[in-house]
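Chapter summary example.
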Amino acid sequence: MVNDTAETLDAYEHWAPDYPPMPHNPLMRAEQLAMLRHWPELAGRRALDLACGSGRYALIMAKEARQVVAVDFSPSMLSQVTSGSRVRAEMSRLPFRSGAFHVVICGLAVAHAPDLDAWMGEVARVLTADGVLLYSDFHPEASRAGMTRSFKDRSGHRRDVPHRRYDLEAHRQAALSAGLTIQRSEEIRVGAQLNEAFPGSREVYARWEGMPMILVVRAAKVRT
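The structure predicted for these 224 residues follows.
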């Protein structure tokens, strides 16, 4: 498997100055609304914002959780995080004891994991016996259709962020192997959950009507 960790890190280091701790485009706003629909109980619990970026989910978790830790491998992203304790680490190699967190939240980052099974196993390790994982990522069908994760840096240069394509069955199998049960999942589709108007949106929505853009998954150690 190609090791693109350095390229991914470089992309986020350049993106960080223009990456606010809030959903800053229609896709992210639709993603966050979906995440909040499946939001776990946080009152009195220890929570991890994994691959936190600039910390938008840490901000939300800090309103309820007893303790919040925000982890990312980009120093520039971490420098913008204002809620919880900041820790620099890779998302599949976490410097925490087993059972450290009741809740793990991971927004739009799973496809950066070099190995989905290893990532899911590491998350399961740091979850308590009744812990909950809630994560989102770009849908594999959107990737298969040729859509990319990209941005323009301050010099106007377009940068593509490397990501892997993990199909839905891979998510199910990774959860099963890690001892997690998928409780809920949701696909954010163009024209349905993703319908916010923006310049050129009519043409975009007409072209991609019905395309699943985001996958949201909630899983837990307890079987329901």
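To summarize the output: The first strand starts at residue 46 and ends at 50.
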